[in-house]
Design goal:
The complex is a heterodimer of chains A (about 180) and B (about 140).
Chain A: H1 12-16, E1 22-27, H2 34-41, H3 54-59, H4 72-75, E2 111-121, E3 132-145, E4 148-160, E5 166-178
Antiparallel strand pairs in A: 1-3, 2-5, 3-4, 4-5
Chain B: E1 17-24, H1 27-37, H2 47-52, H3 62-77, E2 82-91, E3 100-111, E4 116-125, E5 128-138
Antiparallel strand pairs in B: 1-3, 2-5, 3-4, 4-5
The chains are: A alpha+beta (about 180), B alpha+beta (about 140).
Chain lengths: ~180, ~140
């Protein structure tokens, strides 16, 4: 069984040197298309013709079928495997989802939990669109909680389409911390 | 979904409710969801790994929950409404295998100058409120 990953270890000075900087960028490996939309709708029992039928989308004022807004996370993901990766071995570590790039920022922390997510949506995602995610380290707010001492670290993910139009902006806040030392006796 | 639903700003009042809609959280559904949303974190489909991290069982991920909130909003608004924001999404308790997650909302405010409606959202199971969030949507005039 693999251990969860808690991020790179470093100093707060190192962490703060990343503030405002791009800490990750991925080009979505799959363009928006009907098959992936249908498979996304299925487990949610979500039946909406805006996402399956061009005429219904046109009737509602859209130029084509559009993907659900919250599908933007999935369309911004890179591949989990490509030929240059070579072939996997049975004892390889499981692949982690690459969105929480906060874990690539070094910080003196050993544990974490996700705290808050804000999503704002702009241009619709239409069939054929390709989505890019650009992540910046937006904030570090130091705090001591019951679970330990650390900081709320916020990444701002801007999702754009192939025309560089803004599709969504997502703020993801994760509290990274070290638990208090146990007192002996 | 009924595509004839035409929720308009003039038809909405503070206190109106959305849903409820419910979804049984089975391991098969979590696997289907992982394949569809491509978040393959083990805690969302491997029960042993989830339990080793302190959760009671494998549990719904953020993408799944956000998607269920989108379904709730869409079914209430109809095809002409637009989702502007889903914010303050906070997970309080896991939505685990074996739970039935119930999603619902309440209209909290109206801004008739720009046709915007604010809605509080939640999901709950037998363990109580599991996730909360707030949304802003735009509705047509008629």
């Amino acid at each position: 069984m693999s251990k969860p990953s808690w991020g790179k270890y470093g100093t707060w000075e190192e962490a703060e040197s990343y503030l405002g900087k791009v800490i990750g960028e991925d080009v979505g490996v799959d363009a928006v298309e009907l098959g992936s939309i249908r498979r996304w709708l299925e487990p949610k029992e979500f039946d909406c013709a805006l996402h399956t039928d061009r005429k219904a989308a046109n009737d509602a004022g859209y130029r084509d079928v559009l993907a659900p807004s919250t599908m933007v996370f999935s369309y911004g993901l890179p591949s989990y495997w490509s030929p240059e990766d070579g072939h996997a071995r049975i004892d390889d570590e499981p692949r982690q989802i690459p969105i929480p790039v906060i874990f690539d920022v070094p910080a003196p922390c050993t544990l974490s939990f996700a705290s808050n997510i804000d999503m704002e949506f702009f241009e619709p995602m239409y069939i054929g669109d390709t989505i890019t995610r650009t992540s910046r380290l937006a904030d570090i707010s130091h705090k001591e909680l019951r679970v330990g001492k650390g900081a709320f670290m916020t990444q701002e993910d801007t999702y754009t389409n192939q025309n560089d139009e803004k599709v969504a902006v997502v703020l993801l806040t994760i509290f990274r911390f070290v638990p208090p030392e146990r007192k002996e006796g | 979904m009924d595509m004839d639903v035409r929720r308009s700003i003039s038809s909405v009042s503070v206190g109106n409710t959305l849903g409820p809609i419910s979804i049984p959280v089975t391991l098969q559904r979590l696997v289907m969801e992982a394949g569809a949303n491509r978040d393959f974190s083990l805690i969302h489909h491997d029960r042993d790994v989830a339990r080793a991290t302190g959760a009671p069982d494998a549990y719904m991920n953020t993408f799944f929950i956000a998607g269920m909130f989108e379904r709730l909003l869409r079914e209430w608004m109809g095809p002409r409404g637009r989702i502007n924001k889903i914010v303050n999404l906070r997970m309080k308790v896991f939505n685990c295998v074996g739970d039935t997650a119930v999603f619902k909302g309440t209209v909290e405010g109206l801004d008739t100058t720009n046709n915007q409606v604010t809605v509080s959202l939640s999901s709950e199971t037998d363990n109580g409120i599991t996730v909360t969030a707030d949304a802003t949507v735009t509705l047509p005039n008629s």
